[in-house]
């Protein structure tokens, strides 16, 4: 019981520091977006909206550089998912994880297209080519681009489906567990 109250205290402390959506749209540069995004369904934390937001964030996180959050914002708007979670979930890609994630996507694309006579480029070769830059990088990317072009959408789509299922399943398990414990207390 002490552990639960400690977590509850931490949660309430964090929640008090996070601005409400009305406070966010009170900012001068976000006021023009208020008519579009200041709707309750973009901020509610229901099981379906959160699972969808996690899937959107995981999918959009593999988009190239600065387009990640824009893509998450557009998808969350169209699908009416939770905006903050959609945007926050794109942050799994960062300077430390970007290269390994893209290499996994490259491997997935290579194994799907697997043409005889072509060899899989090793991760260490990727690092060397990227560090060299210039024409070596362009030549390597041109040769390996088809694997990336297929692998990135497949990988990010797979991450999105896995994230959606895990959130829906985890939320369901937590709800059932709470219901059972409440039922046991009433006996």
UniProtKB/TrEMBL annotation:
Listed InterPro entries: DUF2062
Keywords: Membrane, Transmembrane, Transmembrane helix
Domain DUF2062, first and last residues per copy: 31-180
Keyword Transmembrane part of the UniProt annotation: yes
Membrane-spanning ranges: 50-79, 147-167
Protein name: DUF2062 domain-containing protein
Lineage: Bacteria, Pseudomonadati, Pseudomonadota, Betaproteobacteria, Neisseriales
